[in-house]
Amino acid sequence: MNRKAVVALAAAALTGAAVTGWAAFVPDPISLTSEGTTGECAVSWRKPGVVFAPLTPGAAAGSFATTDGTARIEIAGEGDLPSLAADPAALTRAITVTNAAKGGFSLRDRAGNVIEVSEPEIPSSAENLLQGVLTFVVRTPADPVGSRTPAFTYVPSGSLPPQLELMPTPKVTIPFTIALSVTPQFAAALNTAFGEGSVKSGDAFGTCRSVISAE
């Protein structure tokens, strides 16, 4: 957590006015972390003859799990923390998330063409909860080591009501449900592997769900 924020909260608590101390304090960006996050992604994209296989099986057919995630949440701007805690829309706009996890899947056809996609990451360049980019390490026979590739863009799927608790120290809980769309880079990889016209940029690919709790 940001050092200035810790000092401000401690000073407020010593005077017996912790909440009013927060209300009077307009913070620099506050950084919170979460370890061991898990999630599940359901893949909706299909092409006849191309078989989906999870590297880390999810609970449902056609899904893969994400495990061992490390997330960093930053809350910045738009006023004091009590105001943000009372306004989910403003809190959503104020939050930036970065995350790296394990997990992934492969796609293979009868001719032996294959793509393996693993190690999902929301990079630090992601804008906020309302939109962002999900990268993966993409491996093919021509690139067996793999290259980190912007594979999907995302937007929220359904409601996204983050919750901010102020006491005893800030804690944010985010029910993170996002819809994935194929990027031009990943569309090119899929079309190279499985034939032109297999997919186009912007096509829906699936959804991912996770609950991030950071403090």
Architecture overview:
The protein is α+β, with helices and mostly antiparallel strands. The protein contains five helices and eleven strands. 20% of the residues lie in helices and 48% in strands. It starts with a helix and ends with a strand. It has an eight-stranded antiparallel β-barrel. The radius of gyration is 20 Å and the shape is elongated. Mean pLDDT is 85; it is low at 1-26. The protein has helices at residues 3-14, 18-24, 81-85, 88-94, 184-194; strands at residues 30-43, 50-54, 63-75, 95-102, 104-109, 114-122, 132-140, 143-156, 163-165, 171-182, 204-214.
Descriptive terms for the model:
215 residues; alpha+beta; eight-stranded antiparallel barrel; 5 helices; elongated; disordered N terminus
